[in-house]
Fold this protein.
Amino acid sequence: MTIQYNTKVSSNTEDELIRLVSSNADASSQYVIFRNGSDDLYAINVAKVEELIVYKHLDIARNSNPNALTIGVTKFRDNMITLVNFDRWLGKNLKEDKEYELVMVCNYGSHMLGMVIKNVVKLMSIDPSDLTDNSDKDDKMSFITEIMIDNKKQLCLIFDSDKLLIEVFPDIEEKKINDMKKVQVEKFEKKLLVAEDSKIIQKTMKLLLDKMEMNYEMFSNGKDLLKYTHENDPDEVGLIITDIEMPVMDGITLIKKLKEDKKTSFLPVVVNTNMANSAVVTDVMKNGAVHIIKKLDLNDIKTAIQKFFRK
């Protein structure tokens, strides 16, 4: 992975921009480690981060409701980006504005938002096997892990970016419901296998697949899905849809293992992810995926099932 930090000047002021070229990220296990206002450690996959911007230099149109989840809107590279303070989303008390140094511009599929944070600690690789599911204890945190900071092991939480996206842009949920009303039911004899760790996405996928009367199995990680293909007849599988960022075994590792095994190499794999930057797209297609869906695009999921399902 290549990460570049540049200092640039905005069109109007001498804003310093710290550019994180996530398009060069080449692995699903690379994370940006950052702190909130309380100095707790959090992580986000580097493929979801477009840039880091100095917060104090931004021109912000503040939300008229001081208690709203979103702070307001700022213009960045000709785009109006919604800003949300990460602490506010967590439900924590906000610190003084001066305590927040950076805005993390995140790209969730086709949606972008700026997340106000205290600072970035480091970039590091976290093996999926080191992630422990934390969603049962905190529905905003997908995983928890231990990382080395200043020669000391510290706990770090990987937040549920799907939940953040839906809560900041609630119209996405409405769009999903509207899209589901348009689903045409089709019949497939073979089974659809889905690997997805996000409970929100799992719930939505189940609603859609039930609407389509699909015969499917849902798994929370790649390893469990791979085990299913080993214990059952792969010829009875019509299609595999997998997320990339998952605990235990990520989606890219799953695709590699499926394609390396002649018993499963023929199975079509569609990737469903909000990490669809150019590097990730290249990586998953190189490893044998047939299509990439941006998460929450139910029409694309339906179209991919119709196009790639083995009949």
User: Anything to note?
Assistant: Residues 199-211 form the longest helix (13 residues). Helices lie at 86-90, 161-168, 171-181, 199-211, 222-231, 251-260, 278-286, 298-308.
